[in-house]
């Protein structure tokens, strides 16, 4: 994998920020976009912008082919059995909300249990809190080990005959923990529960096969995997999706409408009311082509190398607490002594280095860590070891700077 | 941007308020006004306690957690508003808001003192909300107090 060649595909990376070359270490928040994705969206709007699934004119057919072609690319990318199982959504958040409403509220009743982990992003937490409040179901949490991992034994122990839904991140957006989804799915299915996986942080970085993993639902976003914002995917097993009432109703999703009643189209369109994000889906298709050209295995190997390198480089700076397990996805979350992470991020920004600081939409996890906020550097296929050296140098300067002003 | 620019943000007086916050703690009075305010995007939070007697702020304290800018701003604000009338405190908050927008402001006979050190924050748009958190809490508290009375 030649990183300097890859970087040429990302025009945004070639710029100075505050007088320094940009070091973009915030891809877990959103990734940058290659020219091929930007051009695919541009081409759609310039050459064949039209609504899909209606009208008989030529542009409409082209737009429909582009949109449905992107669905087939997604299907192959995640190893789904059929495009009927691939629903386009606004993003991971919408996908999980759809399941929490249309599956959760329909199938949960008082005393049922929803099993989560304390490392969930708010997007895979609050929809379940709301579903629990609406149905009388109870939320339970798999305990975490001190290094921020979960044990399969604990999952087994926490799943009871009352457990109806287990919802879990594949990869933690804060700790980088990679959860053993395949093994968890087996345990979940032994109890006749279903497993929803938040794949927002895994799909961009690992080779994901939903069929092999055994996930019942799998949700992810386009913008974290070099695609555009506003497009995401809900994968669901066909028999589950078939039994789900639409979360939204309106145009595009109907079979037949009369004054007092209506019937729905077949999957996947039944769950896609209104004009969809056509350009977004086409952009996501181009993003998948780009990632496939490089190879998900190569991307994962590169990020593992960066994560190891970063842990080593950062551990050489004193006063730094690094959170999460040693074996992790491509991100490092940390705090520097008494310096607040916002202040760390501001000093790094002055050096052209973009990191995230805050609670990372995971306030319960911050509580578990015993902090109010952390700083996070996250990596992707275009990041280099030199950029991690720049981060380490920036952190040393931060330490000196606050050592001086304190 | 160099570290010289950072020095405009992290002025000595700001770091002093951060390290040695004034008025950190809780008021003893039973009829004190309590306001909680979060910055939901970053997780900073503050609880401000005010003692208002005859339209005058007689005492102010705060607790909370956050970055150097939000905590030093709370420290400076609680110092500055003690002894002011409710109207003066609100006016000072408006002046502070103008300062954060980088607009020209008129001290309007109010003593800003240490607060002027926060002027550099206006050059760091991502940090303005940190600086205004305590002020927003104060305005919210005084507004609620006003509504309960009328």
TrEMBL record, chain A:
Its cofactor is pyridoxal 5'-phosphate. Belongs to the class-V pyridoxal-phosphate-dependent aminotransferase family. Csd subfamily. PANTHER family: CYSTEINE DESULFURASE, CYSTEINE DESULFURASE 1, CHLOROPLASTIC. Its EC number is 2.8.1.7. It holds the Pfam family Aminotran_5. It comes from Scopulibacillus darangshiensis. This is cysteine desulfurase. The keyword Lyase applies. Transmembrane segments: none annotated. Keywords: Lyase, Pyridoxal phosphate, Transferase.
TrEMBL record, chain B:
GO terms for molecular function: iron ion binding; iron-sulfur cluster binding. It holds the Pfam family NifU_N. GO terms for biological process: iron-sulfur cluster assembly. Gene3D superfamilies: 3.90.1010.10. InterPro entries: NIF_FeS_clus_asmbl_NifU_N (IPR002871). Belongs to the NifU family. This is FeS assembly scaffold apoprotein IscU. It comes from Scopulibacillus darangshiensis.
